[in-house]
Amino acid sequence: MFSEQAGLATPGWTTSAVWFDYDNDGRLDLFVCSFVDYGAKQKLACGDNQLGQHYYCIPRVFHGTPNFLYHYNGDGTFTEVSKGTDIARAIGKGLGVVATDINNDGRMDLFVANDTVQNFLFVNRGPDASGKTRWEEVALQAGVAFSENGQPRSGMGVDAGDLQNSGWQDLFVANVDQEMFSLYLNNRDETFSDLAYLHGVSLATRLLSGWGLKFFDYDNDGVLDLFLANRHPDDMIGRYSKQVHYKEPLLLFHQGPDGKLKNVSAEAGPVFQQFFPARGLAVGDVDNNGALGVMVMSNGGAPLLLRNNATHGNHWLGLKLQGVTCNRDAIGAKIVWKAGGKIRHRFKNNGGSYLSSHDPRVVLGIGTATQIEELEIHWPAPSSRVERLVNLAPDRYLRIVEGKGAV
């Protein structure tokens, strides 16, 4: 009932969603992924499999549907504003979405993982002459729509992060077995290059199907790592495939000094030697000790909560950002910190993974450094404020309010 009163009674089969301020008015808006056209009137039988049993229809046989964008009106209600834009014109089968800024123009963009059709990259071009935000779907020219051989894949989990510590956002999307997962490095010109093979991700995921995932610095050394939760869509796959299984292992990749990701799952703990029917994945500091834990949701099973014991004594600083002029959650904020003579960058994205939501706090790893020498918070529009703090003691959380500093 409240959804209807608020203007958010979204029709159809919806999946992931993300809060973000697309028009920089200081209020959070909402994007909702829509999957396929299926319901009581669109039931579809796909026949029998090799075992003589009914099997699941692959998404390819269903018609796709458009996604939805809602603008917050500031009074507890929303207005659907995607009609007439590329968001409504792009018919997909959305399963995952992350809000980020791929071109550093101060406006939040959207990367949507689609199942069996091309992915979407909606670039926010700002207001047109009428004041309405113009969205341009650029995934094909950006190199993130299809595989390298031009085939649509089964995009499910998705995330964004500054893997190169360059101040530019890179993208990741997980697919099903045989399709490989993609690690898209930002070329800083609204194009991306898939370097999953270079980072060992392609080989490690060839027989896996990925859902929940997250870029995060699990050992607090200051650079991003990667966690993947996997599970095949067909619970009968192991009965007629010798290589692919329904339950699959979790994967952990650590970023080394050379900037490359290395699969460290074998030495990451006994849980990585087990197999799970994993779907969603959320990251957060459950113990408030700076060591980010991982919650994995299993399909038809109990959730799995992983405690992080891998920080190895590295120091950290946690931030809870609170916007005043900008949106209260400070989504879109840029964070720059210097510790031990090294300068690091972090951008506060939102969304990502699959049907999941992460801890909104930000944890900055500083390795063996004993203080953060400088910290800058570049608050998102409509604020133009830069908050600067110096000589901060580590291993604690700070609440930083726009214009007031640490409170």
Structure description:
The protein is mainly beta and 407 residues long. Helix content is 4%, strand content 37%. The protein has four helices and 28 strands. The radius of gyration is 21 Å and the shape is globular.
List the helices and strands and how they pair.
Blueprint: H1 2-6, E1 14-20, E2 29-34, E3 68-72, E4 78-80, H2 86-89, E5 94-100, E6 109-114, E7 120-127, E8 133-137, H3 139-142, E9 158-161, E10 170-173, E11 182-186, E12 192-194, H4 201-205, E13 210-216, E14 225-230, E15 251-255, E16 261-263, E17 278-284, E18 293-298, E19 304-306, E20 315-322, E21 334-339, E22 342-347, E23 350-351, E24 362-367, E25 372-378, E26 386-392, E27 397-401, E28 405-406
Parallel strand pairs: 20-27
Antiparallel strand pairs: 1-2, 2-3, 3-4, 5-6, 5-23, 6-7, 7-8, 9-10, 10-11, 11-12, 13-14, 14-15, 15-16, 17-18, 18-19, 20-24, 21-22, 21-25, 25-26, 27-28
Summarize the structure.
The protein has 407 residues and is mainly β. The protein has helices spanning 2-6, 86-89, 139-142, 201-205, and strands at 14-20, 29-34, 68-72, 78-80, 94-100, 109-114, 120-127, 133-137, 158-161, 170-173, 182-186, 192-194, 210-216, 225-230, 251-255, 261-263, 278-284, 293-298, 304-306, 315-322, 334-339, 342-347, 350-351, 362-367, 372-378, 386-392, 397-401, 405-406.
Tag the structure with descriptive keywords:
four-stranded antiparallel sheet; five-stranded antiparallel sheet; globular; 28 strands; 4% helix; mainly beta; 407 residues; 4 helices
